[in-house]
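Team,

Forwarding the record for the chain on the shared tracking sheet. I've put the sequence and predicted structure together so nobody has to dig through attachments.
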Amino acid sequence: MSGCAKRCKRGMVKFAISLHKLVTGTLIKDKADDDLEMYTVSHRPEGLDQLEAQTNFNKRELQVLYRGFKNECPSGVVNEETFKQIYSQFFPHGDASTYAHYLFNAFDSGHNGSIKFEDFVTALSILLRGSTREKLQWTFNLYDINRDGYINKEEMMDIVRAIYDMMGKYTYPALKTDTPKQHVDAFFQKMDKNRDGVVTLDEFILSCQEDENIMRSLQLFENVI
């Protein structure tokens, strides 16, 4: 696998976690190497010209990304179980399966149970080269588990608990039983502007834009490629 593709994969993990630091207060202490196993259904991506028009990558960058994706995924498709295996290697001291499930759904734009190269590169284009609003909207969709256009406390609690499970014993400071609830309450105190019990996309984007830590985390992917 090319060095560029490896950096992209590792950067994706760092990006996903850093966006939650304000909510979770967790830090990564260890990562494993990222040797992958991929699904067996064959898939050929759309033409590079079409992907170049749909993303913020040029044809040369798409070729590099595609070579890396194909080297790791000869079939061209990743299913959820394999995606969970990928994340378990990054977080060997915790249980990454639930968080990987939510992240998989965010990448699976067609909601068909698999991630194709088009899904991968479209999401990567947003996270690497998208506008601030595009990046925040992608992150909002990750939190909006039931895709009803709002983030409620139950959804946020599910995400926060999944992150804690994933981090395992490597969290700082050490977790208390009520820590997830405290973080979710703080999240809603900050973002639920009209106090109606849910966070809309506009509330989410406004609150994130007001937070310097979140804005810095959105720059993680710059100069990866």
